[in-house]
Amino acid sequence: MRHAIVLSVLAAAAAPIRAQTLDPVGVDPRAGLRVDTVIATVNNDVIMLSELRTQAVGEVRTLEAQQGRRLTPEERGFVLQRELTKLINNHTMAQAAKTLGLAAPDMIESLFQDELRRAAAEQVRNLGTEQKFSQELQRQGRTWQSFEREQRVEKMRQFAEELAIYSRLQKQQNLFLTPRMMRELYEREIDRFVRPSLAIVSAVVFRGDDAPAQAAKAIEFWRTNELSSRELADRYPGATAIGEIDAGTLVPELPLAKFALAGPQGAVSAPIPFQGGLQVAKVVRFIEARNASFGDPDVQTELRRIGLDQVVAELRQQALARAAARTEVLVRQAR
Predict the structure, then answer these.
(1) ∠ CA(54), CA(56), CA(58), 5° rounding?
(2) Are 202 and 228 a contacting pair, CB within 8 Å?
(3) In the chain, what are the domain boundaries?
(4) Which of 97, 143, 218, 281 could disulfide-pair with 160, CB 3.0 to 4.6 Å?
(5) What is the model's pLDDT at position 172?
């Protein structure tokens, strides 16, 4: 119940996050200098705005690289909200490691202290000395206490998941993945196992008296060079690039469709007559057709992997719900 309340609070908190124009890559200069602030509390633990920014910056940069543009303020607000939910869930699971009743609290604390010493020793080994480790923490604006706190959240979360999910799965795997469930999973995921070939094809059209000669040169060049159709067309005056096309959307009888769906990836076609000119095509992505039965050993292995992933996700959600019932969460609206 409390976790459901938390989710609704998070939804309400999205607007203040966006309104602050928080930029995970850099603080908005119009906001003035802000040292840090508490963005949420999980029982007695606090989640700082700096921690949220640090968590979100990698995701923002990845999305911007994939899309080739800067994210809008609304999109950045969505990323911040999503990462805040992850942080709250991590803190919730970490605090539940000692309260889920799956192992004695003293044993959990002892395991954590061992892991903490191991993590610190690894840092010292990588940096050379304890003094250099201390200097590196200082350079990052961190302390031993903050390092220990970060390790506690992560290690305790891992302990909780190991006890609540993987130990249970190891003992009861046959109950979670019965033959009937495997068959039902195969039927739900049939498109993974029975499908036609899939292909994305790109093409360049040549017209004019010199089209055959240009097409022949383009074929040889395209076979050994990774160029888009536009980049290839730019090398030949009068050539026209045709962007990437899903071969499955073409009329099956068309020569271009037959060529693309035959594969393999990287194949370059012979000249194909096209609207008074010649078309040269290249398969830029290709997935072979598949017709695998339920009894195929590879299908069984894949079904087991998919099924286990789904079971783990379900058990994780159950463990998180149990942990949330023991947790008080407050999301604060930063001013």
Answers:
(1) 85
(2) yes
(3) 102-162, 197-288
(4) 97
(5) 66
**Amino acid identity at 185:** L
Sign of torsion over alpha carbons 99, 101, 104, 107: negative
Strand pairing category for 198-206 and 240-246: antiparallel
Amino acid at 253: E
Measured CA to CA, the distance from residue 231 to residue 204 in angstroms comes to 10
Positive or negative, the CA dihedral 222, 228, 229, 230 is negative
SS3 state at 33: coil
Q: What are 1-29's pLDDT values in tens digits?
A: 344 333 333 333 444 444 343 444 444 44
Tokens of residue 325, six digits: 């019932």
What DSSP string runs through 235-280?
TSTT-EEEEEEEGGGS-TTSHHHHHHHH--TT-BPPPEEETTEEEE
Burial of 146 (0-12, 13-18, 19+ CB in 10 A): middle
Q: What is the pLDDT of residues 62-102, one digit of tens each?
A: 998 888 889 898 999 899 999 999 999 999 988 888 877 76
CA-wise closest residue to 221 among 237, 239, 209, 233: 233
Residues 6+ apart with CB under 8 A from 35: none
Pick among 3.30.110.30, 3.10.50.40, 3.40.980.10, 3.20.20.70: CATH of 197-288: 3.10.50.40
Spatial distance between the Cα atoms of 164 and 102, rounded to a whole number of angstroms: 7
Cα distance between residue 24 and residue 27, in whole Å: 7
Cis peptide before 264 (omega within 30 of 0): yes
Is a pLDDT exceeding 60 seen at residue 299?
A: yes
Q: How far is CA 235 from CA 64, 118, 245, 266, in A?
A: 30, 58, 21, 19
